[in-house]
Request: fold
Amino acid sequence: MSQRLPRHMVAPPRFGSIARWAVLLVSLAPVPGALLAQQKVPERPRLSENADTNSAAAYYDLGLERLRGERESDAADAFYWASRLAPDWADPLFARRVALLLSHPERLIPYMEGAKRAVESPEGRYLDSLRLRALELDPFVYEDLEGDVVMRYVTELVLADARGRLPPFEFERLSRDVQQEVRLYLRGERAAWWRAWLAYAERRLDDAAKLYGEALKKAGGDAHDYRSRLHAQRGRVFYLRGRLDSAQAELKQALEELRRRDERVTLRVYESKALLEHSLGVALEKAGDSTGAREAYGRALVEDLAFHPAHVRLGGLLAAAGDTGGARSEYELALDVAPGAAVPRALLANLHYAGGDYHAAVTTLEPLLEREPYWPEPYLVRGLALQRLGDTAGAAVQYTRFLELAEAADERRAAVAQRLAALRSQ
Reply:
Protein backbone atom coordinates (compact mmCIF):
# COMPACT_ATOMS: atom_id res chain seq x y z
CA MET A 1 0.00 0.00 0.00
CA SER A 2 2.97 2.33 -0.07
CA GLN A 3 2.68 5.51 -2.10
CA ARG A 4 5.76 6.31 -4.11
CA LEU A 5 6.78 9.28 -6.18
CA PRO A 6 5.25 8.63 -9.62
CA ARG A 7 7.56 8.62 -12.60
CA HIS A 8 8.19 11.80 -14.53
CA MET A 9 7.20 12.11 -18.13
CA VAL A 10 10.15 12.68 -20.42
CA ALA A 11 8.21 15.56 -21.92
CA PRO A 12 7.91 18.61 -19.65
CA PRO A 13 5.27 17.89 -16.97
CA ARG A 14 2.16 20.07 -16.86
CA PHE A 15 0.70 21.66 -13.74
CA GLY A 16 -2.07 19.09 -13.75
CA SER A 17 0.33 16.16 -13.59
CA ILE A 18 2.32 17.88 -10.85
CA ALA A 19 -0.88 18.28 -8.86
CA ARG A 20 -1.80 14.63 -9.19
CA TRP A 21 1.64 13.57 -8.01
CA ALA A 22 1.65 15.94 -5.07
CA VAL A 23 -1.75 14.86 -3.77
CA LEU A 24 -0.45 11.33 -3.21
CA LEU A 25 2.77 12.13 -1.40
CA VAL A 26 4.21 12.64 2.01
CA SER A 27 7.85 13.37 2.62
CA LEU A 28 10.78 11.37 3.73
CA ALA A 29 11.70 12.47 7.24
CA PRO A 30 15.43 13.03 7.53
CA VAL A 31 17.34 10.99 10.05
CA PRO A 32 19.28 13.27 12.43
CA GLY A 33 22.81 13.70 11.13
CA ALA A 34 24.40 12.22 14.25
CA LEU A 35 22.37 9.04 13.86
CA LEU A 36 23.23 8.71 10.19
CA ALA A 37 26.89 9.12 10.97
CA GLN A 38 26.69 6.21 13.42
CA GLN A 39 25.16 3.89 10.84
CA LYS A 40 27.81 2.18 8.78
CA VAL A 41 26.88 1.90 5.12
CA PRO A 42 26.56 -1.84 4.45
CA GLU A 43 28.12 -3.50 1.47
CA ARG A 44 25.74 -3.78 -1.46
CA PRO A 45 24.40 -7.35 -1.57
CA ARG A 46 24.93 -9.52 -4.60
CA LEU A 47 21.76 -10.31 -6.53
CA SER A 48 21.09 -13.33 -8.69
CA GLU A 49 22.70 -13.35 -12.12
CA ASN A 50 19.66 -12.13 -14.06
CA ALA A 51 18.39 -9.64 -11.47
CA ASP A 52 18.29 -5.90 -12.16
CA THR A 53 20.79 -4.22 -9.84
CA ASN A 54 18.94 -0.92 -10.31
CA SER A 55 15.69 -2.37 -8.97
CA ALA A 56 14.71 -1.46 -5.42
CA ALA A 57 12.15 -4.27 -5.55
CA ALA A 58 14.90 -6.80 -6.30
CA TYR A 59 16.78 -5.83 -3.14
CA TYR A 60 13.55 -5.77 -1.14
CA ASP A 61 12.67 -9.29 -2.30
CA LEU A 62 16.20 -10.42 -1.44
CA GLY A 63 15.71 -8.96 2.04
CA LEU A 64 12.48 -10.90 2.50
CA GLU A 65 14.20 -14.08 1.34
CA ARG A 66 17.03 -13.60 3.82
CA LEU A 67 14.60 -12.74 6.60
CA ARG A 68 12.77 -16.02 6.00
CA GLY A 69 16.13 -17.78 6.11
CA GLU A 70 16.90 -16.21 9.52
CA ARG A 71 19.76 -14.18 8.06
CA GLU A 72 18.50 -11.00 9.67
CA SER A 73 21.68 -8.91 9.37
CA ASP A 74 21.96 -9.72 5.66
CA ALA A 75 18.27 -8.89 5.26
CA ALA A 76 18.82 -5.49 6.88
CA ASP A 77 21.57 -4.75 4.35
CA ALA A 78 19.30 -5.63 1.43
CA PHE A 79 16.50 -3.44 2.77
CA TYR A 80 18.97 -0.59 3.23
CA TRP A 81 19.87 -0.65 -0.45
CA ALA A 82 16.23 -0.91 -1.49
CA SER A 83 15.59 2.30 0.44
CA ARG A 84 18.56 4.05 -1.19
CA LEU A 85 17.40 3.18 -4.70
CA ALA A 86 13.83 4.31 -3.92
CA PRO A 87 13.83 6.84 -1.04
CA ASP A 88 10.14 7.56 -1.68
CA TRP A 89 9.16 3.96 -0.78
CA ALA A 90 8.09 3.23 2.81
CA ASP A 91 8.31 -0.56 2.91
CA PRO A 92 12.12 -0.99 2.93
CA LEU A 93 12.49 1.42 5.86
CA PHE A 94 9.98 -0.49 7.93
CA ALA A 95 11.46 -3.86 6.91
CA ARG A 96 14.99 -2.73 7.83
CA ARG A 97 13.77 -1.87 11.31
CA VAL A 98 12.30 -5.34 11.70
CA ALA A 99 15.47 -7.03 10.44
CA LEU A 100 17.69 -5.00 12.78
CA LEU A 101 15.47 -5.81 15.77
CA LEU A 102 15.54 -9.52 14.99
CA SER A 103 19.30 -9.53 14.45
CA HIS A 104 19.94 -8.40 18.06
CA PRO A 105 17.72 -10.48 20.36
CA GLU A 106 19.57 -9.19 23.43
CA ARG A 107 18.15 -5.69 22.93
CA LEU A 108 14.75 -6.76 21.65
CA ILE A 109 13.06 -7.14 25.05
CA PRO A 110 14.13 -3.80 26.56
CA TYR A 111 13.36 -1.97 23.33
CA MET A 112 9.91 -3.50 22.94
CA GLU A 113 9.09 -2.76 26.58
CA GLY A 114 10.16 0.85 26.22
CA ALA A 115 13.10 0.71 28.64
CA LYS A 116 14.67 4.17 28.68
CA ARG A 117 18.22 2.91 28.19
CA ALA A 118 17.13 0.99 25.10
CA VAL A 119 14.78 3.54 23.55
CA GLU A 120 17.08 6.53 24.08
CA SER A 121 20.25 4.75 22.97
CA PRO A 122 21.60 5.65 19.49
CA GLU A 123 20.41 2.27 18.21
CA GLY A 124 16.95 2.71 19.71
CA ARG A 125 16.57 6.20 18.29
CA TYR A 126 17.64 4.94 14.87
CA LEU A 127 15.09 2.11 15.00
CA ASP A 128 12.37 4.58 15.96
CA SER A 129 13.42 6.92 13.15
CA LEU A 130 13.06 4.13 10.59
CA ARG A 131 9.47 3.48 11.58
CA LEU A 132 8.66 7.17 11.77
CA ARG A 133 10.08 7.81 8.29
CA ALA A 134 8.08 4.87 6.90
CA LEU A 135 4.84 6.12 8.47
CA GLU A 136 5.46 9.64 7.23
CA LEU A 137 5.88 8.33 3.70
CA ASP A 138 2.82 6.12 4.01
CA PRO A 139 0.86 6.15 7.30
CA PHE A 140 -0.88 2.95 6.20
CA VAL A 141 2.23 1.00 5.20
CA TYR A 142 1.51 -2.68 5.77
CA GLU A 143 3.47 -3.66 8.87
CA ASP A 144 2.94 -7.38 8.44
CA LEU A 145 6.58 -8.18 9.20
CA GLU A 146 5.98 -6.92 12.72
CA GLY A 147 4.42 -10.30 13.39
CA ASP A 148 7.93 -11.76 13.31
CA VAL A 149 8.99 -9.23 15.94
CA VAL A 150 6.05 -10.09 18.18
CA MET A 151 6.79 -13.81 17.90
CA ARG A 152 10.49 -13.31 18.66
CA TYR A 153 9.76 -10.94 21.54
CA VAL A 154 7.42 -13.31 23.36
CA THR A 155 9.78 -16.23 22.72
CA GLU A 156 12.76 -14.27 24.07
CA LEU A 157 10.79 -13.40 27.20
CA VAL A 158 10.39 -17.09 27.95
CA LEU A 159 13.95 -18.04 26.95
CA ALA A 160 15.77 -15.14 28.62
CA ASP A 161 16.85 -17.19 31.64
CA ALA A 162 17.86 -20.21 29.57
CA ARG A 163 20.07 -18.32 27.10
CA GLY A 164 23.70 -18.92 28.01
CA ARG A 165 22.77 -21.45 30.73
CA LEU A 166 21.92 -24.43 28.50
CA PRO A 167 24.17 -26.13 25.95
CA PRO A 168 23.45 -24.94 22.37
CA PHE A 169 21.67 -28.12 21.25
CA GLU A 170 19.38 -28.11 24.30
CA PHE A 171 18.67 -24.41 23.88
CA GLU A 172 17.70 -24.91 20.21
CA ARG A 173 15.33 -27.71 21.14
CA LEU A 174 13.80 -25.64 23.91
CA SER A 175 13.49 -22.70 21.54
CA ARG A 176 11.48 -24.77 19.04
CA ASP A 177 9.18 -26.00 21.80
CA VAL A 178 8.68 -22.49 23.13
CA GLN A 179 7.91 -21.08 19.70
CA GLN A 180 5.18 -23.67 19.27
CA GLU A 181 3.73 -22.78 22.66
CA VAL A 182 3.89 -19.08 21.80
CA ARG A 183 1.97 -19.66 18.58
CA LEU A 184 -0.74 -21.43 20.54
CA TYR A 185 -0.80 -18.68 23.17
CA LEU A 186 -1.08 -15.89 20.60
CA ARG A 187 -4.16 -17.57 19.22
CA GLY A 188 -5.71 -18.00 22.66
CA GLU A 189 -8.63 -16.08 24.13
CA ARG A 190 -6.51 -14.31 26.77
CA ALA A 191 -4.16 -12.66 24.27
CA ALA A 192 -6.64 -10.19 22.79
CA TRP A 193 -4.13 -7.67 21.43
CA TRP A 194 -1.75 -10.34 20.16
CA ARG A 195 -4.53 -12.25 18.39
CA ALA A 196 -5.56 -9.07 16.60
CA TRP A 197 -2.00 -8.21 15.66
CA LEU A 198 -1.33 -11.74 14.42
CA ALA A 199 -4.43 -11.62 12.22
CA TYR A 200 -3.22 -8.29 10.80
CA ALA A 201 0.27 -9.68 10.20
CA GLU A 202 -1.22 -12.70 8.43
CA ARG A 203 -3.35 -10.37 6.26
CA ARG A 204 -6.60 -11.62 7.74
CA LEU A 205 -7.97 -8.10 7.87
CA ASP A 206 -11.61 -8.85 8.62
CA ASP A 207 -10.54 -11.03 11.55
CA ALA A 208 -8.13 -8.32 12.67
CA ALA A 209 -10.85 -5.64 12.72
CA LYS A 210 -13.10 -7.90 14.79
CA LEU A 211 -10.33 -8.87 17.20
CA TYR A 212 -9.21 -5.28 17.72
CA GLY A 213 -12.81 -4.48 18.56
CA GLU A 214 -12.82 -7.29 21.14
CA ALA A 215 -9.54 -6.05 22.59
CA LEU A 216 -11.05 -2.57 22.97
CA LYS A 217 -14.00 -3.98 24.93
CA LYS A 218 -11.56 -5.57 27.37
CA ALA A 219 -9.33 -2.50 27.69
CA GLY A 220 -9.78 -0.45 30.85
CA GLY A 221 -11.54 2.87 30.45
CA ASP A 222 -8.60 4.82 31.82
CA ALA A 223 -5.92 3.04 29.74
CA HIS A 224 -5.93 5.86 27.20
CA ASP A 225 -2.53 5.16 25.60
CA TYR A 226 -3.39 1.51 25.15
CA ARG A 227 -6.84 2.25 23.76
CA SER A 228 -5.42 4.87 21.44
CA ARG A 229 -3.06 2.33 19.92
CA LEU A 230 -5.88 -0.16 19.48
CA HIS A 231 -8.10 2.40 17.78
CA ALA A 232 -5.25 3.58 15.54
CA GLN A 233 -4.37 0.07 14.46
CA ARG A 234 -8.02 -0.79 13.83
CA GLY A 235 -8.24 2.36 11.71
CA ARG A 236 -5.31 1.19 9.62
CA VAL A 237 -7.00 -2.18 9.13
CA PHE A 238 -10.22 -0.51 7.94
CA TYR A 239 -8.23 1.73 5.58
CA LEU A 240 -6.54 -1.28 4.01
CA ARG A 241 -9.95 -2.89 3.58
CA GLY A 242 -11.24 0.22 1.81
CA ARG A 243 -13.69 1.07 4.61
CA LEU A 244 -12.72 4.72 4.78
CA ASP A 245 -15.59 5.93 6.98
CA SER A 246 -14.73 3.33 9.60
CA ALA A 247 -11.03 4.17 9.31
CA GLN A 248 -11.74 7.85 9.95
CA ALA A 249 -13.95 7.03 12.94
CA GLU A 250 -11.25 4.87 14.55
CA LEU A 251 -8.51 7.45 13.99
CA LYS A 252 -10.70 10.12 15.56
CA GLN A 253 -11.25 7.84 18.54
CA ALA A 254 -7.49 7.29 18.80
CA LEU A 255 -6.97 11.05 18.92
CA GLU A 256 -9.67 11.47 21.53
CA GLU A 257 -8.03 8.86 23.76
CA LEU A 258 -4.71 10.70 23.50
CA ARG A 259 -6.40 13.97 24.45
CA ARG A 260 -7.80 12.29 27.56
CA ARG A 261 -4.50 10.84 28.68
CA ASP A 262 -2.30 12.37 31.33
CA GLU A 263 -0.12 14.84 29.41
CA ARG A 264 2.86 13.81 31.52
CA VAL A 265 2.96 10.43 29.77
CA THR A 266 5.65 10.33 27.11
CA LEU A 267 4.88 8.45 23.91
CA ARG A 268 7.13 7.34 21.10
CA VAL A 269 7.34 9.98 18.37
CA TYR A 270 5.52 7.70 15.92
CA GLU A 271 2.52 7.55 18.28
CA SER A 272 2.01 11.31 18.35
CA LYS A 273 -1.19 13.23 17.71
CA ALA A 274 0.51 14.93 14.76
CA LEU A 275 1.05 11.61 13.05
CA LEU A 276 -2.51 10.48 13.81
CA GLU A 277 -3.93 13.73 12.39
CA HIS A 278 -1.76 13.17 9.33
CA SER A 279 -3.14 9.63 8.97
CA LEU A 280 -6.68 10.97 9.29
CA GLY A 281 -5.95 13.59 6.63
CA VAL A 282 -4.71 10.92 4.22
CA ALA A 283 -7.87 8.87 4.80
CA LEU A 284 -10.03 11.95 4.21
CA GLU A 285 -8.12 12.74 1.02
CA LYS A 286 -8.68 9.24 -0.27
CA ALA A 287 -12.39 9.63 0.45
CA GLY A 288 -12.44 12.86 -1.57
CA ASP A 289 -12.90 15.20 1.40
CA SER A 290 -10.26 17.82 0.60
CA THR A 291 -11.62 20.31 3.13
CA GLY A 292 -11.52 17.79 5.95
CA ALA A 293 -8.05 16.72 4.90
CA ARG A 294 -6.76 20.30 4.97
CA GLU A 295 -8.19 20.75 8.45
CA ALA A 296 -6.53 17.54 9.67
CA TYR A 297 -3.15 18.58 8.27
CA GLY A 298 -3.58 21.98 9.89
CA ARG A 299 -4.23 20.33 13.25
CA ALA A 300 -1.13 18.17 12.76
CA LEU A 301 0.94 21.34 12.40
CA VAL A 302 -0.70 22.83 15.49
CA GLU A 303 0.46 19.75 17.39
CA ASP A 304 3.95 19.90 15.89
CA LEU A 305 5.16 22.82 13.78
CA ALA A 306 8.11 20.75 12.60
CA PHE A 307 5.88 17.98 11.21
CA HIS A 308 6.81 18.58 7.59
CA PRO A 309 4.70 15.80 5.93
CA ALA A 310 1.61 17.91 6.67
CA HIS A 311 3.15 20.78 4.68
CA VAL A 312 3.77 18.42 1.77
CA ARG A 313 0.21 17.15 1.79
CA LEU A 314 -1.15 20.67 2.01
CA GLY A 315 1.08 21.57 -0.93
CA GLY A 316 -0.40 18.73 -2.90
CA LEU A 317 -3.94 19.86 -2.20
CA LEU A 318 -3.09 23.42 -3.25
CA ALA A 319 -1.40 22.20 -6.42
CA ALA A 320 -4.47 20.11 -7.23
CA ALA A 321 -6.60 23.23 -6.86
CA GLY A 322 -4.33 25.17 -9.25
CA ASP A 323 -2.69 27.29 -6.56
CA THR A 324 0.92 26.67 -7.56
CA GLY A 325 2.18 29.61 -5.51
CA GLY A 326 0.60 28.22 -2.37
CA ALA A 327 1.91 24.76 -3.15
CA ARG A 328 5.42 26.12 -3.61
CA SER A 329 5.20 27.89 -0.24
CA GLU A 330 4.15 24.68 1.50
CA TYR A 331 7.00 22.68 -0.05
CA GLU A 332 9.43 25.40 0.97
CA LEU A 333 8.07 25.33 4.53
CA ALA A 334 8.58 21.56 4.56
CA LEU A 335 12.21 22.04 3.54
CA ASP A 336 12.71 24.80 6.09
CA VAL A 337 12.08 22.32 8.90
CA ALA A 338 13.47 19.25 7.11
CA PRO A 339 16.08 20.39 4.57
CA GLY A 340 17.21 16.81 3.95
CA ALA A 341 13.76 15.50 3.02
CA ALA A 342 13.84 13.95 -0.44
CA VAL A 343 10.27 13.98 -1.74
CA PRO A 344 9.32 17.62 -1.04
CA ARG A 345 12.55 18.73 -2.67
CA ALA A 346 11.73 16.67 -5.75
CA LEU A 347 8.19 18.06 -5.83
CA LEU A 348 9.41 21.62 -5.47
CA ALA A 349 11.85 21.12 -8.35
CA ASN A 350 9.03 19.67 -10.45
CA LEU A 351 6.91 22.70 -9.68
CA HIS A 352 9.71 25.06 -10.68
CA TYR A 353 10.25 23.14 -13.90
CA ALA A 354 6.56 23.07 -14.77
CA GLY A 355 6.38 26.82 -14.20
CA GLY A 356 9.33 27.50 -16.50
CA ASP A 357 11.80 28.46 -13.75
CA TYR A 358 14.53 26.13 -14.92
CA HIS A 359 17.30 27.76 -12.91
CA ALA A 360 15.32 27.20 -9.70
CA ALA A 361 14.67 23.58 -10.67
CA VAL A 362 18.39 22.96 -11.15
CA THR A 363 19.48 24.59 -7.91
CA THR A 364 16.70 22.97 -5.89
CA LEU A 365 17.87 19.53 -6.97
CA GLU A 366 21.57 19.99 -6.19
CA PRO A 367 21.33 18.97 -2.48
CA LEU A 368 19.13 16.03 -3.42
CA LEU A 369 21.71 14.63 -5.84
CA GLU A 370 24.27 14.71 -3.05
CA ARG A 371 21.99 13.10 -0.47
CA GLU A 372 20.32 10.52 -2.73
CA PRO A 373 22.89 9.75 -5.44
CA TYR A 374 21.27 6.42 -6.38
CA TRP A 375 17.77 7.78 -7.09
CA PRO A 376 17.26 8.26 -10.84
CA GLU A 377 14.33 10.69 -10.65
CA PRO A 378 16.18 13.97 -9.90
CA TYR A 379 18.74 13.34 -12.64
CA LEU A 380 16.01 13.26 -15.25
CA VAL A 381 14.34 16.49 -14.12
CA ARG A 382 17.69 18.23 -13.84
CA GLY A 383 18.63 17.06 -17.32
CA LEU A 384 15.38 18.39 -18.75
CA ALA A 385 15.89 21.74 -17.02
CA LEU A 386 19.51 22.06 -18.17
CA GLN A 387 18.50 21.27 -21.73
CA ARG A 388 15.89 24.03 -21.56
CA LEU A 389 18.61 26.39 -20.38
CA GLY A 390 20.78 25.48 -23.36
CA ASP A 391 23.37 23.56 -21.35
CA THR A 392 23.51 20.52 -23.61
CA ALA A 393 26.71 19.14 -22.09
CA GLY A 394 25.25 19.33 -18.59
CA ALA A 395 21.98 17.79 -19.75
CA ALA A 396 23.87 14.93 -21.38
CA VAL A 397 25.65 14.19 -18.10
CA GLN A 398 22.33 14.05 -16.23
CA TYR A 399 20.65 11.86 -18.85
CA THR A 400 23.62 9.50 -18.80
CA ARG A 401 23.41 9.18 -15.05
CA PHE A 402 19.67 8.57 -15.24
CA LEU A 403 20.20 5.73 -17.69
CA GLU A 404 22.88 4.27 -15.42
CA LEU A 405 20.47 4.23 -12.46
CA ALA A 406 17.01 3.60 -13.96
CA GLU A 407 15.52 0.13 -13.85
CA ALA A 408 15.79 -1.93 -17.01
CA ALA A 409 11.99 -2.01 -17.24
CA ASP A 410 11.64 1.78 -16.88
CA GLU A 411 9.47 2.87 -19.81
CA ARG A 412 11.27 6.22 -20.00
CA ARG A 413 14.65 4.79 -20.89
CA ALA A 414 14.07 4.75 -24.66
CA ALA A 415 12.95 8.38 -24.80
CA VAL A 416 15.85 9.54 -22.61
CA ALA A 417 18.30 7.55 -24.74
CA GLN A 418 16.91 9.30 -27.84
CA ARG A 419 17.38 12.70 -26.20
CA LEU A 420 20.94 11.81 -25.24
CA ALA A 421 21.78 10.58 -28.73
CA ALA A 422 20.40 13.80 -30.22
CA LEU A 423 22.50 15.91 -27.85
CA ARG A 424 25.65 13.96 -28.66
CA SER A 425 25.04 14.27 -32.38
CA GLN A 426 24.97 18.04 -31.97
Notes: The first helix runs from residue 15 to 23. The chain is about 70% helix and 0% strand. The radius of gyration is 23 Å.
